[in-house]
Amino acid sequence: MVTVTETLSSSIQYLQAESLKNQELQVIFDPQARAEYLDLQLSIDGLSHIKENPEAAYCFISLTNTPSSLKRIVQERQQLLIKILNNAGLTAYDPATAPYSPDTNLTSNPDEVYLVDSSKIAGSRYFVGHNLLPSSGQGIEEEKAKNLIRIPVVLMDRNIRVSRMQPSRSIYLEYFDFQAQRNEFVKVFKFLRQFEPGVGFHRGISVLLGFSKDGAIVNLQDAVYEQFPDLRYTYDGTKPTSQLEIQNPEIFG
User: What does the DSSP assignment read for 208-229?
Assistant: First the structure.
């Protein structure tokens, strides 16, 4: 009996051999190998019953530690993002409106929340949201999306510097006015819908690949940057970070 692991190993070996023919862009997981890998990964996580919806997006958002003075701004951008995704033909899941939101539920335990959010990420092809504020929960979600080979699109405000600890195999885009540029982002997601995701190496760096129906294989972030050069993200260490203030220092003892 051939196991999922043996099949996956065989597929990887074949793809690695094929990739040697093209040192510029090396394919490790094409859509078929990705599907085999996901079968194994989801079974390990107890999520074998979850099926990926290629037209759905998980919209991550910073909630637990967001100051009340910033919460309205974060939520407004989240709502606009959901409208953008809808206009691009994608359905969006908003954790802020879920039964497990820390704004409405403080009794569910971490195991339950982790399992639910993991299942929502696994059920959506896209993982999209704004990186504005420090949030360990958001970072865990982003790594989860990377490991499950979603299509992560992380939106950066051009005026705000965030942590340089940013996972690879993600598409980072920046904006100066999210409202004014909303139509550009609709076009981005319509463009991304042409591709099936995969994994490979581009010039020795692990990247998210896109496989189009006509057989083209691209570095998906570079393809987006070529189509939408004004949205290319560039890290700038001179920009200010969002300053958060501890309101209850007494809890430190």
Answer: EEEEETTS-EEEHHHHHHHH-G
- What one-letter code names the amino acid at 240? P
Pairwise pLDDT comparison (9 vs 132), residue with the higher score: 132
Right CATH for 50-197+226-234 from 3.40.50.450, 1.10.8.60, 3.40.50.720, 1.20.120.450 = 3.40.50.450
Which residues are bridge partners to 92 per DSSP?
57
Pairing between β-strand 151-157 and β-strand 124-130 as defined by DSSP bridges: parallel
User: 226-243, pLDDT tens digit by residue?
Assistant: 999 999 999 999 999 988
Q: d(Cα 161, Cα 203) in Å, to the nearest integer?
A: 27
Note the pTM of the prediction, 2 decimals. 0.88
**What does the DSSP assignment read for the chain?**
---HHHHHHHHHHHHHHHHTT-SSEEEEE-HHHHHHHHHHHHHHTT-TT---EEEEEEEE---TT--HHHHHHHHHHHHHHHHHHHHTT-EEE-GGGSTT-TTT-S-S-HHHHHHHHHHHHHTEEEEEEE--S--HHHHHHHHHHHHTT-EEEEEEETT----S---SS-EEEEES-TTTTHHHHHHHHHHHTTEEEEEEEETTEEEEEEEETTS-EEEHHHHHHHH-GGGB----TTSPPPP---S-GGGG-
